[in-house]
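Please go through this protein, sequence plus structure tokens, and consider how the sequence yields the tokens. Keep your notes short.
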Amino acid sequence: LRRVAELAAGEIADWFVAHIVESDGAVVQIAIAHRDPTKVTFARELQERYPPQDDATGPAAVIRTGQSELVPEITPELVRAAARDDLHLELLQELGLESYICVPLKGLDGSALGAITLVSSDAGRRFGAKDLVLAEELARRAASAIENARLYREAEARAQAARVLATIGDGVALVDGSGRIRLWNAAAAVITGLQGSDVLGKQAPVAIPGWSAVSELIPVATGGESARAENIPLQIGERELWLSISAVGYEEGTVYAFRDLTDE
């Protein structure tokens, strides 16, 4: 978005500003650009002195409603209405704002990602319907880039988690709310001798001999509690295993982590 701001400022608008919605719902400005760097410094100082308060219009409102805003002409009356005091009015007038567009950044599912704002400070450049169409197309492409970047980051995180599960020495299993085994890492197969192909998708009591009896002995931590391990005997075929097992429950099921204490 910062790169888009640098490219757009001066080409399709005098000012380009980008806001995004953080994971906690806060609306944060992440980019502001103008052909003249001193203007950007002035605008940032103005925002620090007079941070946005009214969300009835502007990026916060556009993000909330999902509807674009177009003000072809920013009249002196509009500037005076936005000013909080005489000094604020003088600073706003110094910016020389003439015309304004703000359009939402929307995800593929319609979720609010943020907003981009285009402002003209040139009396010869007034935004109209065609400029609004251009801004909305720019926002569509920017939103697509944001979603692609987030999906890539999520995919990387999942891949890293998968690599960790494949290499750690502790067995890890996920049993969903219906009692079916959805995850069985390599260490779980080594410790128990039960391969993933033998247990995945099956009910835990069917796939793991004696599971019905021992699962009741394992305390399940919830709501941020510390998981407490229990030493549990498990008879698998002719092997008697003693496993140290802890469990953590969440909305989709229960995660079990265990290690082999049989020799000890």
Remarks:
- The mean pLDDT is 89.
- The first strand starts at residue 15 and ends at 21.
- Residues 129-167 form the longest helix (39 residues).
